[in-house]
Specification:
Strand content: 15-25%
CATH topology of the largest domain: TIM Barrel
Radius of gyration: 23 Å
CATH class of the largest domain: Alpha Beta
Structural class: alpha/beta
Oligomer: single chain
Helix content: 25-40%
Distance between the termini: 24 Å
Number of domains: 3
Number of helices: 15
CATH superfamily of the largest domain: Metal-dependent hydrolases
Shape: globular
CATH architecture of the largest domain: Alpha-Beta Barrel
Strand order of the largest sheet: 8-15-16-17-18-19-20-21
């Protein structure tokens, strides 16, 4: 019983430690770490690391893979903040797709527009004859043209929905941006099953290339105006096209009560097959800070610095939340919270106080956490699911967030260091397509609190993580959240989900972490 692969000649990182022992793999499992001489036979393939770093495969604990893959095939505005470039891409896409009734896509950034709000007139100049619907990079707002507003019947007399806002001119007429629940006022043509499957496979190729071997998709079976993308996962899982291991987070319909749990149980059974398991439930508690919908303990400021009455939105009644979370946990579901403001974080932790048993709950985003709640993560067994790439100075932070937050809240943003020092378990994620899915870019920011290649000062540098902790979050930390207990570490008996970087990131200055690239990705010992 000889090994199929033996990795040697370079450092190995796992579980917060680094060593230089060879690693042997047979039949998709790690069978030896250290002296593997007796496992080497004539058919064993040696992999000479040549000083490069061997790691467990990265896992993304909060991502929207199908959504990201689909959007790459639509009118893609990512990768730039230049308004002229947006308009050029929209014009080109419309010209290249003359038969499409709608121009749909997204990826624009709030920093590209005055006050963070785009307008219809810009779109009407380039596409006056067809409706345009473009989601921003955060997926919490849509930019629409006049034709889309007309088809939706949105006028000055249209009231704001309870869970959203229509941005308006002084006379009340819609300006062209729809926030949160107001996005649902526009009925956009659905994607097709074929488009969703193509999007998943496109995303899988990209993510494997970035060293990601497993992930948790944070919005499967959505009922909030987004497409239900579960069919793409089910098809890929049943046909063998799914090479990643995927945990699907079923969507909690915030307009309903616990009566939806039997439906979630049915979906879990139907959507657990092959490399797919759907036993997590996403509870979206609030919005985002940039459009003042994240739930905060202190009110937002206006553009003049005056205190307003707005403390953000609670999408799920905090009084009912404990009962919902308890019922989910009793049925074996993992609670997966979107909790961005400190009031939402507190609501999630309060709900977990009532839960008996450990379903490995996790709170994603955590832009603001009250100091009193930091130690509660460890006490309640709640994992801090971090999206580190956001913890850096950029216009969306400096111009559209900090000036509008209470100063005490602004100083508590993305408290990774405090959470780690308190003993909280950390997991890593991207929220792609909101931001880059590249774990190495997220790790770079977690360690440096500045984007790779940016000469701005570090953002709240006391909250930096060391490299070992950041890498652990994206490997064994996310594996724990994903309940994939034979992954995330390089140990005998564990699955051979492994990656090789093009260098040893421990041997270079921290500001060069973002220069690193993934050269090889193995899933179950097979090069993908």
């Amino acid at each position: 019983m000889r090994a199929d692969l033996v990795f040697h000649g370079g450092p190995v990182f796992t579980d917060g430690t680094r060593h230089h022992d060879p690693v042997a793999v047979r039949n998709g499992r790690i069978v030896g770490v250290g002296d593997v001489t007796e496992l080497i036979g004539p058919q064993t393939q040696p992999v000479d690391l040549q000083g490069r770093l061997l790691l467990p495969g990265f896992q993304d604990a909060h991502i929207h893979a199908v959504m990201g893959g689909v959007e790459l095939g639509l009118c893609d505005l990512t990768g730039t903040v230049d308004l002229a470039e947006y308009l050029r891409r929209i014009t080109t896409y419309a010209a290249d797709h003359p038969d499409e009734e709608w121009i749909v896509g997204g990826g624009w950034s709030m920093e590209s527009f005055e006050g963070g709000v785009p307008t219809t007139d810009l779109l009407d100049r380039v596409v006056p004859d067809r409706p345009v619907y473009l989601i921003n990079r955060d997926h919490h707002a849509a930019w629409v043209n006049g034709r889309a507003l007309d088809l939706a019947g949105i006028t000055a007399d249209t009231p704001d929905p309870a869970n959203g806002r229509i941005d308006r001119r002084p006379d009340g007429t819609p300006i062209g941006a729809l926030q949160e629940g107001a996005m649902d006022l526009v009925t956009v043509p659905r994607t097709t099953p074929e488009t969703r499957l193509e999007g998943l496979l496109r995303a899988q190729r990209l993510l494997h290339g970035l060293g990601i071997t497993a992930w948790q998709d944070a919005m499967v079976c959505a009922t909030n105006g987004y497409d239900d993308i579960s069919d793409a996962y089910l098809t890929a899982a049943t046909t063998g096209k799914l090479t990643a291991t995927v945990v699907g987070a079923l969507w909690w319909d915030r307009d309903r009560d616990a009566g939806q749990i039997p439906e979630l149980i049915e979906k879990r059974a139907r959507l657990t097959v092959g490399r797919l398991r759907c036993d997590s439930v996403k509870l979206m508690l609030d919005g985002i800070a940039e459009n003042f919908t994240a739930a905060m303990t202190e009110p937002y400021r206006d553009s003049c610095g005056h205190i307003t009455k707005n403390r953000g939105l609670s999408f799920i009644d905090p009084e009912r939340l404990p009962a919902y979370v308890t019922a989910l946990s009793e049925n074996g579901f993992q609670p997966h919270f979107h909790a961005l403001g400190d009031r939402a974080v507190r609501d999630a932790l309060n709900a977990l106080e009532a839960v008996n048993g450990d379903t490995r709950p996790h709170l994603a985003h955590l832009q603001v956490v009250h100091p009193d709640d930091i130690p509660r993560f460890k006490q309640l067994g709640a994992t801090a699911n971090l999206q580190p790439y956001w913890a850096a100075h950029e216009p969306q932070m400096d111009d559209l967030t900090i000036p509008f937050l209470d100063p005490a809240l602004a100083a508590r943003q993305y408290p990774f260091g405090d959470l780690h020092r308190s003993g909280a378990r950390l997991a890593g994620g991207s929220d792609w397509p909101v931001s880059t899915p590249d774990p190495l870019q997220g790790i770079h920011v977690a360690v440096n609190r500045v984007h790779h290649g940016d000469d701005r000062e570090s953002f709240l540098p006391d909250q930096k993580l060391d490299l070992r902790t950041a890498l652990t979050a994206y490997t064994s930390g996310s594996a724990y959240v994903n309940r994939l207990d034979d992954t995330g570490s390089i140990r005998p008996g564990f699955r051979a989900d492994l990656i090789v970087l093009d260098r040893d990131v421990f041997a270079a200055p921290p500001l060069e972490i973002g220069d690193a690239r993934v050269e090889l990705t193995f899933v179950d010992g097979r090069l993908v």
